[in-house]
Specification:
The protein is an all-alpha fold. It has one domain. The protein contains 7 helices and no strands. The longest helix is centred in the first third of the chain and has 25 residues, at 21-45. The radius of gyration is 18 Å and the shape is flat.
Length: 169
């Protein structure tokens, strides 16, 4: 037991280096542009396109665009698969604690199995169980909002960085 508790102290590693002021400003602007693009598109289309998990997606896509979690494939498939699993569990198993837990665990496993892990998408089943939407949730907001986010990321990251985005599809 003491050995286990000792693990809670961590490794004592140093904090990661501080991002440059430019990197911070560019990440801020990227997040601003992506969320405002999704919100404005929602207003124009009179459709629901925003998910809370998209804010966390912006952290990865604009703050850390080279990570595997930040690639367009991961953003799109991760959100779509996690929402699909959430809807399946909600409609087949009902809105209970255990079905929610099954949905989150299954979304994680399915993203890992398909090599499309996007951590923010792991919250989509929770959002689904809280709001209890219909099947249209897959298209509006999940797929449509994620597509707008990825489109902004493709344009913005390639316009503001020397490196290429994405690293892979």
């Amino acid at each position: 037991m003491l050995k286990f508790l000792g693990k809670l102290k961590g490794d004592g590693a140093a904090l990661p280096p501080l991002a440059s002021a430019r990197q911070i400003a560019l990440a801020w602007l990227g997040g601003f542009l992506a969320i405002s693009s999704i919100a404005l598109s929602a207003d124009l289309l009179s459709a629901s396109l925003l998910l809370g998990s998209f804010g966390a997606s912006c952290v990865l896509v604009f703050g850390f665009p080279d990570l595997p979690f930040s690639q367009p494939r991961n953003v799109l498939l991760g959100h779509l698969l996690s929402s699909l699993v959430g809807l399946l569990c909600l409609h087949l198993l009902g809105p209970g604690v255990w079905s929610l837990a099954i949905a989150v665990g299954s979304a994680i496993a399915l993203m890992m199995l398909t090599r499309s892990v996007h951590p923010p998408a792991g919250s989509n089943p929770v959002i689904i169980f809280l709001t209890q939407p219909g099947w249209s949730f897959l298209l509006f907001p999940t797929l449509s909002g994620a597509l707008i986010l990825v489109l902004v990321a493709l344009l913005y990251n390639n316009a503001t960085r020397a490196g290429r985005y994405p690293k892979y599809w």
